[in-house]
Please model this.
Amino acid sequence: MLFILLMACTSPEEPQSSLESSFELGEIIPNVVVATIDSQVEGVAFVEWGADTGATRTTRRAPIAAGGRFEGLVVGPPSGERVSFRAVVETSTGERLEGALETLDIPYEPADLPNVNTVGSLPGDAPGHVFTSLITSQSTQFVILDEEGRLAWYVKLPSNELVTASSLALDGSGVMVLTTDMSLTAPQTVILHYGWDGRLLRRMILPDGHHDFVELPDGRIAWIQLEAGPITLSGESIDVAQDALRVSSWAETADVNGPPLFSFLRDWKGPERECDHQRHTLFYQGRELLDWTHANSLDYDASRDAFLMLTHHIDQAFVISAVDGALLNEITFDEGDPLADEGEPWSHAHSSTMSADHLLLFDNGLHYSPPRSRVVAYDVDPETGALTETLSLEEAESRLVYALGRREEAARRRAAHLVEHLGPHHPQQRQRRGALGLGDLRGRGHGPDRVDAGAALIEGPRRS
Model:
């Protein structure tokens, strides 16, 4: 309203600017800057921004009509920096109109936010952004760090929440995180969908859900559900905890009345050999059960319209049809695989991203002596299923938390998943990460224009 009044008081003799803009710190998250652009000419609008000591960045471009207004969000200016912003409109004839340069001081990060430093990067693609959660006895905060380790975005979650997975919303509206409230007698797992402005857009309870989820192109959510039942082992019937794959439409609570798309108890013959780690137990449905499969990672491969689900205690990735739940393939290693000469098998992996022809795993290495924590990648031969190790990264003193990025195509966006584990040999806290070209101008439901992929090492206290 103030803007309209000021325009009304302008003398007719004074020249009118073809471009007016304003920039304000976000109400909830100051790293999100609200940009308003008014243009007297038709074209495409975007924002150029950057810290005094950094290179200028350019947001995605959005169409703007003559006499129109665009309102969007510039996501990612780092905490504690003085950042300059300039609105730009380019016309179809190549004319460039610039607004006044405005400078904002981005406030420092919250005082209760734990310190995390990036200490290195890997060669390859351009650096990306790291998604991670910082958990203390007082709070849980989900954060995004830029390629220099600076805080670029954050949201404070309810206390006692354990974040086990996260991803970008496919429509570009924000971030989804999977949390489990560990303060309850029966832990409750919930997907929280936050907008970039820090407001909670929606939530969905996943009954007996755990570890991971995937948003599908049609908006549904695929997720892992715990299930219990008997198996026969050495002629003896024993009750175990296994896993199922469900696909649900958004609701306050996911519908679990019908059968799951895939069930290890129903649809799989069971392991051919037993591992000592499967003798670990968990308490479920009022009884103590063997933790038999311990599925922990879920991905969707659009090229095959199939899910890939990784199990911790059975060193296999299962390829499952998204159409009818049929088991299409089991990706694992045998003595005759190329791994015998060109790499080493993983041993009880967590924190993984997968496609039909590539695995990127955080390997707990529990069957190595001594156990080893590493990031390992394999190419999968689509015809023979043979695995070829393409990357193995480990840090001898186990002081680092690994975050690793890889570019892949997804519906209506390009995303690079980052894999992180919050310390060696502690699989309970599993984080899957998305990398985003932050600084994109977001508004009117537009998704990101580009996404950077990269890798980084995160140094911080070990948490179990």
